[in-house]
Structures are given as C-alpha cells and as structure tokens.
Amino acid sequence: MGSGQSIYAGTPLECMLNNWKAFRRQADYGTPLCKDDLIKFCTVEWPTFGVEWPAGGTLKLKIVKAVHNVVTRDGHWDQYPYIDIWQDLTANSPPWLRECRAQAIRALMAQTPGQRRGRPPVKKPCPPVVIPTAPDPMPPPPVYPGLPGTPVAHHTRTETVPAHELPLRETVGPGGDLTMIYVPFTTSDLYNWKHQNPSFSEDPAPLTTVFETLVSAHNPTWGDMKIALNTLLTAEERRLVFSKAKEGLVAGGEDAANIPNVLPEAAPNWSHTVEEGQNYHRRYALAIVQGMKRCIRKTPNWAKLYNIRQEKTENPAAFYERLCNTCKRYTDLDPEDVNGKRVLIPLFIGQSYEDIRKKLQKIDGASGKNIEELLEIALKVYDRRDDEERKKGARLLAMALKGESGKGGGNTKGQTGLQGKGRGSRLGRNQCAICKEEGHWKNECPQRHNRREGSRNRTPPKLFAFEWEDPD
C-alpha cells in the first residue's frame, strides 16, 4: 500500500488518498469506500478505457467525464461512486485540490520519457452509441452453455457484462420506426434531490415523490434505480424499502417464489430494446416506488390529539376542524371515515370549552349522535354566551350608576347617626378634656381636683336589694 502510493507521488491519485476523509465525505452512496479499490480502478481499470486516463489519475474534466460515461454505460456500478466523486471534485475544486493541481503539473514536468512508457495496454476506444437501422443479429451461442461463470470471472473483464442504459425515451429512428434512446439524468440532479429534501427516515414523502417523477419521466432501468437508491437512501433505508416492496408484491398476488425475479439484487439481463425487457424494468421501478409509499405510514401520536382544547372565543366549527387536521397529521385515521368520527366525537365533547362541554354532556347518547347535530347545539351555546355577556355588562353598569347616586346621602346619614349616639366631635389641639376650655390640657385643669373629690364622696351603688345588719 505504502510503496504503491509512493510510485504516484505528486499525482492526483496521491492527493485523493492523502485527503481520503474529504474524498469519502463528498457524497454518500450507501456503500463503504476503500482506498485499495480507488487505487485499483485508477491504475488498472480506467487506463484501459481508451480515453487517455493516466495511471496516476488526472484533473482534466474532459477525461474524467469520459471515464464517467464509460462506467455508467457499461454498468460498472462498483466503480461508479469513485469516479462520480472524482468528477464532482474536479468540477468544483475545493482548496486542498487546487494545491494538487499544482503538484500534478510539477510531477508531469518532472517525468522522463522512460517513465511515461510504462503504461498498461490501452484498449480500442468504444464506438459511439448509434440508433440501429436494422435488428441486431442474434449473438452466437456460448462455447460452454451449461457452465456457469465462476465468482472470479464475474469480477473480471473476461466475463460478459450486460450494458445497462440510463433513462430511456421513445423517439423516431432513421427508418421512421419508434425506438428507445438513451437520455441520462445528470449527477447534479441526484445531488440536488438529496440536498433539497429531508432524509427518507425523517419524512419519506418528498423522496417518494422524486422517485415517482423519475419513473414517469425517464423510464429508468435497473441500473438507474440502483444508482438513485444508493445516492438518495442509506443502506438501512434501502433494506426497509425492499422489504416493503416485497410485502406489496405479495399483497398484490405475486407468487413468493417469483419475487427474486421481479426484484433482483444483481444486475439482470433485461434488454431495453424489446417490449418484454422494458416491461421488466418498469415493473421493477414501480415495485420500488410502491415499497417507498408503504414506508410513509407513520406511527400515531395520540398525545397531539388529546392535548387540544377549545379556546373560550374559538368557534366550535373551527375547533372541530382543528381536531380533524391534527388527526390527519399525527394519526392514521381518516376524520371522514366511520372509525375516525367514532374517535373524534367523544374528543369534541370532552375537550370543548366549559359551558359547551356541560351542555353536550347533558344530552342522552351524545357520543352516538352525528357531528352535525352536536355542532348545532354547540353553536347555540356559543351564540347565547354573547347575549349573556351583554346582559351581564348592562347589570354591572346599572349597579355602578346606582351606587354613585346614593353616595352623598349615605355620608350625611352616617354623620347624623354618630351624633345621635352621643359621640361629640374631636377635641382641639389645646382644648381640655375636662372643662372643654382652650389654653390648657386636662392635667393642668383647675376643675381636676374638684372632680376627683366628688368621685371620692360619691356613695357606691348597692350590689343587692338588701344588706345584712348585725343584730347586736
């Protein structure tokens, strides 16, 4: 690993390896990326595509795009994440890659002619895709028709790999016949869909809509769906979608033994040039979309529904509509369905405002009545509440006016009452409490001693009607 890396010192490949964390974080395809795979693809596979890819890699966008086209056209899906990230980095050039460009130029200028001759053999460039004017001849039979391919051969170029086209569209061929041509969706589309929508686990609906549009507008093949799923969904999300897709096929009457043929995990040999193969591709894509739709069903959150209370000034019809909207959003019940109304009517009665709740609870069999009848009764209570408020306000105003008119007479009466009880007015500041004269207080009053003497000579009152006398 280390020695192999030193051979390509100063090349774009070494730069990508030295900044592996940034390279790996550039996009998430749901599969782990490995340095050894990048080295193998860059030094062994891509130089054989006939697009002048050097063994140490390149930052020329034209060559990178050419390799990207060959990878997608020939269905090398294991190489797709690496070349796709490489193309995105080359097009956008983060700061660490700008330094790599300078290093690549210096390394290229330092190379000797002898170093440049040690390249792997270059295959003949692939011919451009043309619209056939006549049906292709049948391929010759295999030399060993009964011999299955070995696992090793499956991962080499000696194994025949079916070419998987990207989205197909119908057009008129040179002979006037309708035929299917290849119209790829770009990588930027996938990135935009990924960044403009929430994750599938958070909210499955937006990405499900994206896949529905993709299926209806592009006629994607198995390979297209594979790329889109790997880019937009995580590994766990993909497992959930495939599980739900299989459930949907079984629920639709599909034989369980035939499901692997409808949802193959490996690249199938479905031709897009014949109607049968097109049907297979479309059936696969529709099964995936149906699986995504089955994931939209959310876990009910009944607490949201039970926590709603009617405000005092809220119209009963508006309150019931708020209950219905919460039911749609946080539960799997339909407010228009019988089961939905069976749940909502008791909540409407029990969570209405106090006066409306008391009125509805007095009705016999209120839970079994139609919501229209209950709303009519609630609206009567709601409207009557305004009349009662106006009457209450009028009574309070009358009481206030009555109190103001009797305020003056009350004071006069109170003063007269006090005088009638014999309580005189308050003493002045310099007035005597005994003789009531001004100029001295009671301690200095000359009548003080006379008053004390009189109180001493006063005969105490008898406590009984008779008193005991000594007979002697």
Q: What is shown here, in short?
A:
Helix content is 55%, strand content 2%. The chain is mainly α and 472 residues long.
What does this structure look like?
This protein folds into 3 domains: 2-116, DNA polymerase, domain 1 (Orthogonal Bundle), CATH 1.10.150.180; 165-294, Human Immunodeficiency Virus Type 1 Capsid Protein (Orthogonal Bundle); 302-400. It starts with a helix and ends in a 15-residue tail after the last helix. The longest helix is centred in the C-terminal third of the chain and has 35 residues, at 371-405. The protein is elongated. The protein is mostly helical and 472 residues long. Mean pLDDT is 75; it is low at 1-5, 112-124, 128-166 and 409-422. It has 22 helices and 2 strands. The protein has helices at residues 2-7, 12-18, 20-25, 35-45, 61-74, 80-92, 95-110, 113-116, 151-154, 187-196, 204-218, 222-232, 235-251, 259-262, 275-294, 302-306, 316-330, 338-350, 354-361, 371-405, 407-420, 447-457, and strands at residues 168-172, 178-182. Helices cover 55% and strands 2% of the residues. The protein has a two-stranded antiparallel sheet with strand order 1-2.
The pLDDT mean sits at: 75
CATH superfamily of the largest domain: Human Immunodeficiency Virus Type 1 Capsid Protein
**N-to-C CA distance:** 147 Å
- Low-pLDDT regions: 1-5, 112-124, 128-166, 409-422
Number of helices: 22
Strand elements, count: 2
Structural domain tally: 3
Q: What is the overall shape?
A: elongated
- The fraction of residues in strands falls at under 5%
Major beta sheet, specifics? 2 strands, antiparallel
The radius of gyration over CA amounts to: 48 Å
CATH C-level category of the largest domain = Mainly Alpha
Structural class determined from secondary elements = mainly alpha
Spatial ordering of strands, largest sheet: 1-2
| Helix and strand run | HHHHHHHHHEEHHHHHHHHHHHHH
Helix content, binned percent: 40-55%
**At CATH's second level, what is the architecture of the largest domain?**
Orthogonal Bundle
Biased composition (Gly residues): 406-422
Main location: host cell
Domain CCHC-type: 431-447
Organism: Chelydra serpentina (Snapping turtle)
